[in-house]
Amino acid sequence: MYKIAVIPGDGTGLEMVTEGLKVLEAAQAKFNFKLDKTDYDLGGERYMRTGEILPESVLNELKRYDAIFLGAIGHPDVKPGILEKGLLLKMRFELDLYINLRPVKLYPGVDTPIKGKGPEDIDFVVVRENTEGLYAGAGGFLRKGTPQEVAVQESLNTRFGVERCLRYAFEYCRDRRERKKLTLCGKTNVLTYAFDLWERAFHEIGPEYPDVERDYAHVDAISMWMVKNPEWFDVIVTDNLFGDIITDLGAMIQGGMGIAAGGNIHPGRVSMFEPIGGSAPKYTGKGVINPLASISAGAMMLEHLGEKEAAAAIEKAVVEVCSKKLKSLGAGQMGYSTAEVGDLVADIL
Ligand code: IPM
Ligand code: MN
């Protein structure tokens, strides 16, 4: 029995988690585990109604769950930054979810915009640091609103934070498959403090993982190679902002936001699983959004909880639906409604 906090959040979040939970329910019947779910109405609507974003009491309650299943955060009527910082980033920081794990995997039958590449070429994982860097919120204004205005935004990188992220990546890489290559994605030619620390730590602890080949590439070059030679990558480890950016690119080469899922992880503690796309206000309530990203986030959650067989079965069902059923992964182009796609996966299970 696992205690799961469900946060549908904003926009299409509710439709997404509904289908994700439908599939998790089908899995629990078959694989002999149980999810004890509690809903939390956090997000833009609650904020506009009550002014509350993430009350301390709720945050403390969340710490007592085995996992959090999240839909999407971001509301068109709320100024950008308020919900993102007050809810999504706050959960990542306060729950110390220091890894953002984002697989980039092209399933058979799914179209990629990259000509000449197939599932054997696009199969890697990005390990994004999730609690530091430019996301730490360090900085401020001086003389705001005047012609002499200064805006400072600093990237915080602690040896502790960098090292635990690198160690996670080395270990993840070691367990993943035969080919074991860990690529550090940085910008050592310009960000000569932050990525100096990253690079030193990378090579200092690297020898403790002798079976993992170490590789380095600048973030701009990685953006090029993810398109030109995605087959070069196995596991990529990087800081918070670079990880944010390259995983949107990653989502596109694996077939789009409709399929891309991620985990906000603190090993051994409550962790949070989500589709990586946003709340997509223009599709909200129409039943056209692709729920496979939420369904895959559910599989990642089960993997984290130790239900590996169930996780693998969901992934297999998703592959089957992608390759045999859906016309496309794009919203409104699937040939099925959101709920029907959830049914297809649940039926296969
Ligand atoms: C993501 C999102 C968030 C981020 C936003 C919504 C704050 O883009 O999860 O990648 O930048 O981390
Ligand atoms: Mn992002």
Note the main attributes of this structure.
ten-stranded mixed beta sheet, Isopropylmalate Dehydrogenase, 11 helices, 349 residues, binds 3-isopropylmalic acid, binds manganese (II) ion, alpha/beta, two-stranded antiparallel sheet, single chain
List the helices and strands and how they pair.
Layout: E1 2-9, H1 13-31, E2 35-39, H2 44-50, H3 56-62, E3 67-72, H4 82-94, E4 99-105, E5 123-129, E6 133-142, E7 150-156, H5 159-176, E8 181-186, H6 194-205, E9 213-218, H7 219-228, E10 235-238, H8 240-253, E11 261-265, E12 271-275, H9 292-305, H10 308-324, H11 338-348
Parallel strand pairs: 1-2, 1-3, 3-12, 5-10, 8-9, 8-10
Antiparallel strand pairs: 4-5, 4-11, 6-7, 11-12
Helix pairs in contact: 1-9, 1-10, 1-11, 5-6, 7-8, 9-10, 10-11
Task: Note down, in words, how this protein is organized.
This protein is α/β, with parallel strands linked by helices. It folds into 2 domains: 1-98 and 268-349, Isopropylmalate Dehydrogenase (3-Layer(aba) Sandwich); 112-254, 3-Layer(aba) Sandwich (Isopropylmalate Dehydrogenase), CATH 3.40.718. Helices cover 41% and strands 22% of the residues. The protein is built from 11 helices and 12 strands. The chain has helices at residues 13-31, 44-50, 56-62, 82-94, 159-176, 194-205, 219-228, 240-253, 292-305, 308-324, 338-348; strands at residues 2-9, 35-39, 67-72, 99-105, 123-129, 133-142, 150-156, 181-186, 213-218, 235-238, 261-265, 271-275. The strands form 2 sheets. The chain has a 10-stranded mixed beta sheet with strand order 2-1-3-12-11-4-5-10-8-9, sandwiched between helices. It has a two-stranded antiparallel sheet with strand order 6-7. The longest helix is centred in the N-terminal third of the chain and has 19 residues, at 13-31. The mean pLDDT is 97. 3-isopropylmalic acid is lined by residues 74, 84, 88-89, 244, 276. Residues 244, 248 line the site of manganese (II) ion.
